[in-house]
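Escalated from tier 1: protoporphyrin IX containing FE holo job.
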Amino acid sequence: MSGPSTYKPGSGVEKWLDDRLPIIRLGYDSFVDFPTPRNLNYWWTFGGILAVFLMIQILSGIVLAMHYVAHEDYAFDSVQRITRDVPFGWLIQSMHANGASFFFVAVYLHMFRGLYYGSYKAPREILWILGVVIYLLMMATGFMGYVLPWGQMSYWGAMVITNLIGALPFVGDAIREWLWGGFSVGQATLNRFFSLHYLLPFVIAAVVGLHIWALHVPGNGNPVGLDVRKGDAGKKDTLPFHPYYTVKDGFAIIVYLMIFAVFVFFLPTVLGHADNYIEANPLSTPAHIVPEWYYLPFYAILRAITFDIGPIDAKLGGVLAMFGAIGILFVLPWLDTSKVRSMRYRPLTRWFFIFFVVAALGLGWCGAVNPDDYVMGITGFKFLYLGQFLTFYYFAYFIVVLPVLGIIEKPKERPASIEAAVLGTDKA
Amino acid sequence: MKMTRIFAAAIAALGFAGTAAAFEGEQHAPHEHHWHHDGPFGTYDTQAVQRGYQVYQEVCASCHSMDLMRFRNLGQQGGPFASEEFPNPNDNLIVMQIAASYTRVWDQDEVNDDGDPVERPGLPSDAFPAPFANEQMARASNGGAYPPDLSLIVKARSHGENYLYSLLTGYEEAPADSHLAPGQYYNPYFPGGAIAMAPPLADGIIEYADGTEATLEQMAEDVTTFLSWAGDPHMETRKQMGVMVLIYLLIFAILVYLAYRQVWANVKH
Ligand code: HEM
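Tier 2 regenerated the structure:
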């Protein structure tokens, strides 16, 4: 942890324990006395919100698993039995299904926060990379979870995504069969997806542990992007985590839970798809196969590549682009050449960032519709073209904008310290 | 072979699927109908659910199963025949009567001492009887089309209730340019416009137990309300609890916000 420990055991028992297993000291240093920049805004509350939702997903999931039957003939009915006959099953099921969406909303806001405030830059590269690992694990967990109720979208979504693997040259078919455990999505697939869907959240929890560990070495970043000063001056830049941030995070968590409750209790099915209330049927393909909303931008990138690139055919190109869109986040810390963390002081890049957010939302829109439809009915302007343009921008932001602007842009003048920024004493 | 077909279908659906319309005319958007159970405080109109059950039982049940339903559901909290007198729906007299009105083999595993399946009157714990033993038989009796299970039909169609109501009341004279196959009927609310279900409802085809006049619209609204309830039987409990949870969280949020103001009062940030 940053700085020496200030924990003083309050009783004989605590002292005894502290000499043997200093676990209270760890908790105290990490979550009570931990020096935290005094200027954190509400964008910094999403980490805590994510931790709460990870717990909600794990606890509700464990209860669901007590009643769920991972069998192609019974899975669909067993989920219905949960919502109908298990006491409060409708509540647990609704929390788990909508909780996944709220988990993803929070993680996207958390990541955009990181992109805007340059949280991925030194010395927080590993922290960021661990975040990307968590995000990948979340995507895999969400995908496999969606297969479990064995509705039409579950089945056909699984079919489409596993078939993507088949696009890999040489090894694709073999890997796909290995994932399926057979020659198609079926009983073996369902069973292993259930097993992995139960396992991965605990892997996520472990990586979150590393994530927090990596956070607590440099400490939190902050909206102005300045380091906490060394020594005593640093005390003026920070506040102890408790009570200042426990109460602020607590407030944010409750507000977020209120929005969550509106969906759980009043709109439990709006984030789902009607076709998933039809049991899986391998002989009838739904008219439109769409993934869950949180995958839509990547789905749009997948479909944007409709042309061969040299020896890479369109399908493989799409798969590579889709995985590349996440993969590029791993090297982001080294693509951004600017020394300035916060976009507040990057007048030009800031606009490119804002358009990046628009592009990500736009890609989500493209992923939800038929690529051959026209955008707002404008004849000739297919969603496909919009998706291709936005895909181009998505990659250009990382590969061109951040490396180049970091060198040529003249940043705005920054305050002398966090304290100065807060007190406004530096405004020249 | 089967695999390549599935694969091809998946790829087609991946990007290039468009809904093929059998007719020039576009699929009509469903009516916006007002439902008693709309909105955060809406509850099911119990009378309508009861009448809707009668419509299902006397009309739809000859073609459509409702596999997820048990007779006892009719008497459970929030159900059409729920009664304070019988907190356990298995004791509910109306439910017992309804169940007992069907005599059949309920379960092939339920055998007598000779090993033959037992025929007996239904119990509240039995499932709604299905009209056909399997999909093939259902198709054979319906000109090749499959009448889907109705337990979740409201959730399984976009626009839910409004779609169902529009479909049931939306049969029309087929336009001249339509090419309906034998056994198909024109209904512009159905994707493609050609549906293999004959118009199931018409004025006066049943006599309501409660004396309500059985018009087409009345029956369509009632059976749709019944099917909504069947797809979401705990809706009322869910909304009631939601209101309590939100009030609780709101008070909690205000208290924590005040604490936050207090804690941060003397700190510039
Ligand atoms: C289960 C998912 C996650 C949990 C529970 C979690 C938890 C946290 C917590 C508690 C913090 C400190 C408070 C805050 O800054 O909000 C934090 C910071 C951070 N997280 Fe996460 N996180 C998760 C996922 C991610 C992902 C997917 C990324 C990026 C791809 C990420 C990147 C970061 C970064 C860069 C910071 C430091 C921000 C700064 O202090 O400037 N995290 N995380």
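Chain A touches chain B through 50 residues (CB under 8 Å).
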